[in-house]
């Protein structure tokens, strides 16, 4: 448990927790792309003090970005675009663990480890739509999210 907490803290220090009103986005990451790959998945976690809905995502790094759900059907992994994702009040919603991810489609350039991808999340709270800027950390193609050690974040 301690290890998980320190990894999360490290991720927060690295990507910088984003606050816009009552919404916090943390641990945003993607994986470096393989040659010829022009799509990428992004995982992140969103906490909102008030009940909110993630209604869209955009990025200057790709042609289009979508919110996807991922399910396993007959041993096959299936992704489909979904229009929105509910963010219950006071609850951290971890996209990956909840079976969702953001999909970047038509990448303008390969994602390289150590770089970051700028994203804008459109989050609806009551009747207002907040645009939350997030930077997703790009990790090595073969890396896992929990691999980076604390000291690797120090120089950022
Ligand atoms: Cu997808």
What key attributes describe this structure?
11 strands; mainly beta; 1 helix; 11-stranded mixed sheet; binds copper (II) ion; 156 residues; Immunoglobulin-like; disordered C terminus
Structure notes:
The chain has 156 residues and is mostly beta strands. The chain has one domain (2-141): Immunoglobulin-like (Sandwich). Helices cover 9% and strands 54% of the residues. It has one helix and eleven strands; from the N terminus they run αβββββββββββ. The protein has one helix at residues 2-15, and strands spanning 18-20, 23-31, 39-48, 52-58, 62-73, 76-82, 85-87, 91-94, 100-107, 116-125, 128-139. Strands 1, 2, 3, 4, 5, 6, 7, 8, 9, 10 and 11 form an eleven-stranded mixed β-sheet that branches. A hairpin with a 2-residue loop joins strand 1 (18-20) and strand 2. The longest helix has 14 residues, at 2-15. It is globular and about 40 Å long. The two termini are 25 Å apart. The structure holds copper (II) ion (CU). The site of copper (II) ion (CU) has 5 residues, from strand 9.
- Oligomeric state: single chain
Ligands bound, unique: copper (II) ion
User: Which blocks of ≥5 consecutive residues have pLDDT under 50?
Assistant: 10-19, 147-156
Q: Count the beta strands.
A: 11
Mean pLDDT: 84
Q: Approximately what portion of the residues adopt beta-strand conformation?
A: over 45%
Structural class: mainly beta
Task: Estimate nothing, just give the exact number of structural domains.
Answer: 1
User: What is the string of SSEs from the N terminus onward?
Assistant: HEEEEEEEEEEE
Helix content: under 10%
The CATH level-2 architecture is identified as Sandwich
Shape: globular
CATH homologous superfamily title: PCu(A)C copper chaperone
Q: Terminal Cα separation, in Å?
A: 25 Å
